[in-house]
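Sharing a chain and its predicted structure for anyone who wants a worked example. Both blocks are below, sequence first, tokens second.
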Amino acid sequence: MQINIALTDNNPEQAEALRSRWYPSASSQQIRDSFIFNEVIDRFQGDPVEVLADYFRNDDDSRTAQRRITLRQDTNERLRTIASVANKPIAATLRALIAHAVDNLAVGDAKEQVEAQSDAAQLQLLNEKIAQLEKQLAACTKTLEDIKRLAK
């Protein structure tokens, strides 16, 4: 189902950010912006009133541009449901959902960075333990050789 909707004027950049994160090896020709916007709607979880409240407040001063996008029937129904629960227009709801998804990428990147730092610390600790075990193994091997030599 094609709809004509007012999205923020930076929606191509938002779609590209989401595409590069969710589908890193895909180009804009392979995965269209409409597919990304369908994914934004389908992946949304939580109470729209609570989760999207800040985005609705910030939406008043955003510049918009008309855009024709294609939504799957079930995704369109979900968008309409989210909009009715939030008591907001469909266009404002979609803009808020897209902004929320882009912002969550930054949160996800920060979490991954923390996890990577944690992984690096664990890797360092493992490397230290490996070095310690190698020293102990070398000492055990030397002791075993000494015992064999004495036994002869």
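Comments welcome. Helices lie at 11-22, 33-43, 48-51, 53-58, 73-86, 90-151.
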